[in-house]
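Form 12-C: Joint structure prediction
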Amino acid sequence: MDDWDEDTTTTSSTAQGSSWNTGKGGFGGDHSSRGTDENGNEDKGSSWNSAESGFRGRGRGRGGGRGSAGRGFRNGGGRDEGGADDNEDGFVGGTGGRGARGGFRSGGGGGGSGREGFGGGYRGKDEEVFSKVSDPNMGGEADGENAGPKVTYVPPALSEEESSIFAHYESGINFDKYDDILVDVSGSNPPKAIMTFEEAALCESLNRNVSKSGYKKPTPVQKHGIPIISAGRDLMACAQTGSGKTAAFLLPILQKLMADGVAASRFSEVQEPEAIIVAPTRELINQIYMEARKFAHGTCVRPVVVYGGISTGYTIREILKGCNVLCGTPGRLLDVIGRGKIGLSKLRYLVLDEADRMLDMGFEPDMRKLVSSPGMPRKEDRQTLMFSATYPEDIQRLAADFLKMDYLFLAVGVVGGACSDVEQVVVQVTKFSKRDQLLDVLKTTGTERTMVFVETKRQADFIATFLCQEKVPTTSIHGDREQREREQALGDFRSGKCPVLVATSVAARGLDIKDVQHVVNFDLPNNIDEYVHRIGRTGRCGNTGKAVCFFDPEANGDLARSLVKVLSGAQQEVPKWLEEAAFSAHGTTGFNPSGRVFASTDSRKAGSFQNDRAGQPAVAPSAAADDDDEWE
Ligand SMILES: Nc1ncnc2c1ncn2[C@@H]1O[C@H](COP(=O)(O)OP(=O)(O)OP(=O)(O)O)[C@@H](O)[C@H]1O
Ligand SMILES: [Mg+2]
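Section 2 - Result
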């Protein structure tokens, strides 16, 4: 047996939530048995939660808390929602560095429950529970998977059929309207944009794969991003959800590798990829990998994907078959590097998709660890590329640490703006009425694919159970589900077997699922960027979609202003009552009182937030931290 097979890894902890799927057990039993859960968390207690399962409102803290020594000011304020910790890629074991991150956060609630039990570790970004581990092979922190049962899950083999590899959905009626969006490139000497894929001068096989993917002309982020990357420049790119950012970085990278004759070799015990792509969730990185595999089809360039929740032995065997483009969630990536299976000396490209998330408190330490891994070329000697639909300015400043001085900032449309192909409707609710209102909404959506976002994993199980009982074919995805279940859930949703997917924020970013016509924010997120990403699961690639959000003035008042701003920025109707709520909300114009700035431009520009807030902490205690809860 391979030595790495001996490693123990945890699965994604409790496999709750399957009872309603399998019919085994009732949800009452399932959930009430969790009582105060292993994290000592709460749901934000809607009454029916309490009534049916003995949940008790909100307010318990994350105990050991999170916080980064370097950025501790982000923590300690506001909410503590341990129950929401839904994240990816559990690199975060409880060794020194991470342990130090605890503590800041504990100011929120009653605190104390849950986290301490892990001896300084905490539930990692991959939703996996990690014990305190120190594996010398892993550079200090394991993928968090060194305790508990071994993960044996191996994903099903991928089809080699071209019809499957190149399966895609059609661009929508508004695809051509992308060309009307204002584009701003800041920084010195940006290369000229291309207008067509022909101008990109892609090599033959890549060009063929682009055509087979149904791409006829580039989207704006591709028109500008491709030549920028091909010119060897570092890039921070912002473009709305669903507008083709993935191909904007994959195509120029693959083009260069193919032009240089890069070819995968299985004759090396240490694989040295030319490109590394990181993303915050397992499903997203897998999707990026599938895109890379599609564009590299029939060439000698071999992409590989690594993420938590699947067998490490399998992962490493895949790497050893040859690896040019390594796609990974941070924890597993650091793990395979730490195990010596990946060398970095040939690395030319480092891509952070969902870059603002990758540099937010939850992942920033991992990103720093990645760029300081042995052999990692200095930023001057590699190309670093960042992509997202949102870029809070504090994150932009931080991102500069990873980029060359002369990086270009590409903004397609309003930075942080919602996709205007999504019709946004805000419905005023009370916590008591939400569930019935959800049923009302789902009556109108019928069998059309609908994603319902909730705040916590437990809430996801509740709502999914409830909907199943109401005979709505529903599945769910969140961090307490095992990887197998998560992939099954996504598969059932994609295929239409379950047209309703209840999800935590783990599914908020990047996922590109055909025919998602509706997004319901059953619980509003606590930061506006998160909202923008969530509703962006619909209205993609020029198609239209609809997003309904339940706004409970008691719980969501803090979001009123930024919500009004996003709605008006996307030419959506703003209900009078919401305007009033925004007016009476505390905070200053343009700010989410919980701290996160909405729209921003290149932070290097004069008069920007950066300058306005000189001398202040980079991030207020806030949304960012809360957001992390949702992911970690
Ligand atoms: N030039 C193109 N022509 C046709 N379809 C395209 C083109 N570029 C991308 N697409 C398709 O558009 C969809 C959305 O692309 P992608 O997932 O890259 O968006 P994104 O900008 O990364 O969104 P998000 O912010 O949600 O991550 C995908 O199905 C992709 O294959
Ligand atoms: Mg994307």
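Section 3 - Comments
The CA atoms of residues 475 and 590 lie 37 Å apart. The pocket of adenosine-5'-triphosphate (ligand 1) is lined by residues 168, 171, 214-215, 218-219, 222, 239, 241-247, 389, 510, 512, 536, 540-541 (CB under 6 Å).
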